Every structure is written in C-alpha cells, then in structure tokens.
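fyi for ur records
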Amino acid sequence: MMALDDNYLEKLRERGKKGHIYREFQDTGLMLADILGDRKHKALYIKLAKERDKQELLTLAKRVAENKNVKNKGAYFMRILFDEIKGKKR
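which gave:
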C-alpha cells in the first residue's frame, strides 16, 4: 500500500471544514442569515428557505435590515414572519 503524503491529509481536513452548498434553498438561507447579521442561526434560515417562498423571505429580511431602530434583526424578522403566518391561518 502506498503511503499518503501528510500534506494531502491536511488538505482533506481543511476541505472538510468548509461548508458546501448543494441546493438553492441552502444559498437562500445563508443569504438571509447574512442580511440579518445572524450567522449563528443559519440552520433556522435554511429550514425556512426550504419551506417558504424565497422572494418573500428575502424581501422581508431586506426590509428588516434597512430599519435602523431594530437591535436584534433576526428576532424582529421571526416576529414579523410569525405574525404573517398566524394571520394567514385565521
């Protein structure tokens, strides 16, 4: 068996640390997280992007991000989204 180069193994480890985007909704979710400055909750935004309309979510996120009075943009985004969902079910 041929010995592997240590440099090659290190390259594989580094490559494994980087995230990969395979679907459009993953890209949309990451865009939402970046727009709202909330990368910590990127999995939540990816899940939302998978279930809801891309354009609606991006429009809402941009509207929230433009509001200078909002301190926690991620929480405000979720509140507005929840209120919209709740209003549609009535």
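Residues 73-89 form the longest helix (17 residues). thats all i got for now
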